[in-house]
Design a protein that fits this description.
The structure holds two protein chains of two kinds. Chain A contains ten helices and no strands. By secondary structure, chain A is an all-alpha fold. In chain A, helix 2 packs antiparallel against helix 3. Chain B folds into two domains: 34 residues; 214 residues, MetI-like fold. Chain B has ten helices and no strands. In chain B, helix 4 packs across helix 6 and helix 8 runs antiparallel to helix 10. Classes of the chains: A mainly alpha, B mainly alpha.
Chain lengths: 214, 288
């Protein structure tokens, strides 16, 4: 118990660091994932290929390798940014591949007849997409997106090992200060549980409000 | 998998003018992508990543052996983790499906806890707090995490078998264990095989976490070479050598999962159960 109360600011900093990584990387992943998903369903062949390659490569890349390449590799090209930004980039790009697949399969669950009916009513492409197809796709993607974002929050722990301030990284300092290592980890675990369970709760609420009536 | 744009709810089948417009878009986007790739290659050449000093180390016998040893260690960790997590998954799934409330609660608690924890936290905990060697720590962490996810996968599989199968088996006078082992489990495993293999891809990818606890796996070997001053710090070349191998291994396994999914879907033995897509298990509690 002492570990938490005596080092509250340290834990707080780590917790906020993890939260920050999670939020920014989630935004990046959602935006990039949406772009890639639209590439993958685009009528233009080369964009489809680009999207497919992006997803296939990133889904099969170990995140540690990606972190390794981005955090230690990009500076070789003279691109010097804070480690945190690199970490967000790596995490966001990695997760975007998963988000893309989720969104694409969401779009594919909408029956073809829906689009045809919308067009036969004289709706424009934008109207078909905005009023008919995407609202239906959105409903079915809520749980898998939540699942992907939970995975992202958990993956952010890897950033700590690459000297970005976040929750898991706090164990090093506390270990050096001579605190009980078991309790240190218990509180780290609690921190992660708070984050993952809140994401899960958030998406359960969204699912209840907007999800498909089953 | 790859669906043509025509077969989706998004577009009509394009007419001649639309096709012409798409053709123009195609040329423009191809040009942009080629320019992007060219720019990256230019950057690589500009920063002298292709000099012989940085690439000759890969011709040395010692370096090759170092890399191969690393790869071997990665595969070893993966093999242990895969076998153990399948076993743990089976045990936990049986626990969650048990008729005894205490067992069910315990299994649920274990599964939910380890699913919600980052793997890396577990690996670090085992490595730092319990002072275990890197390999057992890595394998234990991966087993706990993937075992818990696989338990959920197995359970979903068992629950997705048509209810009539279970009822028919009980009606024939089979016992609880017999129903499970002869009727439900075989069908569930068939249905969930693509998901199980996809989860093993996750395990394979996560063996690279061993790098962070100084386990001498593939990435670690790469890091050793990359930080060698004698070879002019060949960081980018190392990444260019290592990542295709890593990504290739994972892709092979992913493709295998997709292939299995296609095969099982055609198989007459999966008529009473729906074959899951080739994707790793979900993490959101309370979602099937």
């Amino acid at each position: 118990m002492d570990v938490l109360t005596e080092n509250f600011s340290l834990y707080g900093k780590g917790f906020l660091g993890t939260l920050e990584l999670t939020v920014y990387a989630s935004i990046l992943a959602l935006v990039l994932g949406l772009v890639m998903a639209s590439f993958r369903v685009a009528p233009v062949g080369s964009l489809r290929v680009f999207g497919t390659v992006w997803v296939m490569v990133l889904r099969n890349t170990p995140l540690t390798l990606l972190f390794f390449a981005v955090l230690l590799g990009l500076p070789r090209f003279g691109l010097v940014l804070p480690f945190k930004v690199f970490a967000i980039l790596a995490l966001g790009c990695y997760t975007s591949a998963f988000i893309c697949e989720v969104l694409r399969s969401g779009i594919n669950t909408v029956p073809q007849g829906q689009g045809e009916a919308a067009r036969s009513l004289g709706m424009t492409f934008g109207q078909t997409l905005g009023n008919v197809v995407l609202p239906q796709a959105f409903r079915s993607v809520i749980p898998p997106v939540g699942s992907t974002l939970i995975a992202l929050a958990k993956n952010s722990a890897i950033a700590g090992a690459f000297s970005v301030t976040e929750l898991l990284g706090t164990y090093k300092t506390l270990n050096e200060l001579g605190y009980s290592i078991i309790w240190t980890f218990v509180w780290i675990a609690v921190g992660y549980l708070i984050i993952t369970l809140s994401i899960s709760a958030l998406f359960n609420v969204l699912e209840k409000r907007y999800g498909v009536a089953r | 998998m790859t669906q043509t744009a025509a077969a989706s709810a998004l577009y009509d089948i394009p007419g001649p003018r639309t096709r012409k417009r798409h053709f123009v878009y195609g040329i423009v986007s191809t040009a942009v992508i080629i320019a992007l790739v060219g720019w990256i290659i230019y950057l690589l050449v500009e920063t002298e990543q292709f000099t012989s000093a940085k690439w000759t180390p890969f011709e040395y016998k010692g370096i090759q052996e170092l890399l191969l040893r690393g790869l071997g260690n990665t595969l070893k960790a993966f093999a242990y983790a895969a076998v153990l997590s399948l076993a743990l998954g089976a045990v936990l799934a049986v626990g969650r499906l048990s008729e005894h409330r205490a067992v069910r609660w315990l299994a649920t608690l274990v599964v939910e806890f380890f699913r919600a924890m980052p793997v890396l936290v577990m690996i670090f905990f085992i490595f730092v707090a319990l002072k275990v060697q890197p390999l057992p720590a890595l394998v234990a962490g991966l087993t706990l995490y993937n075992g818990s996810v696989l338990a959920e996968v197995f359970r979903t599989g068992i629950n997705s078998v048509d209810r009539g199968q279970r009822e028919a088996a009980y009606a024939l006078g089979m016992r609880k264990t017999q129903v499970m082992t002869f009727v439900l489990a075989p069908q569930a495993v068939r249905a969930m095989l693509p998901t199980i293999i996809s989860q093993l891809v996750v395990a394979l990818k996560d063996t690279s976490l061993g790098y962070l606890i100084t386990y001498e796996e593939f990435l670690h070997a790469g890091k050793l070479i990359a930080s060698n001053l004698d070879y002019d710090l060949p960081f980018i070349p190392v990444v260019m050598v290592i990542s295709p191998i890593y990504i290739g291994m994972c892709m092979l396994l992913s493709w295998f999962a997709t292939w299995v999914a296609k095969r099982e879907r055609r198989s007459p033995k999966t008529e009473a159960v729906e074959v899951a897509p080739a994707e790793p298990g979900t993490l959101l509690p309370g979602v099937k």
